């Protein structure tokens, strides 16, 4: 009879261990789902940031090209001004 009662105790402990393992497994599944959702969110944010960086790089290229063109125009205007000043001095000198 003592052996029969002991086997029930062992079975009860085993059932509790299996239930504990089941609860632990459920918690792991929930944590995995949360981690996966966070990963998907992070991936979406990364894609948005990459798109924004690409857009900003394009804007920088456009602005750099525009600045280069404006500098060339300023240099051209400075040359024209110097030429006009030389012409004015020449006219004053000749008269």
From TrEMBL:
Keywords for the protein's UniProt record, in alphabetical order: Coiled coil, Membrane, Transmembrane, Transmembrane helix
Positions of transmembrane segments: 6-30
Domain of life: Bacteria
Entry coiled-coil feature ranges: 32-94
Name assigned to this protein: DNA recombination protein RmuC
Organism name: Pseudomonas abietaniphila
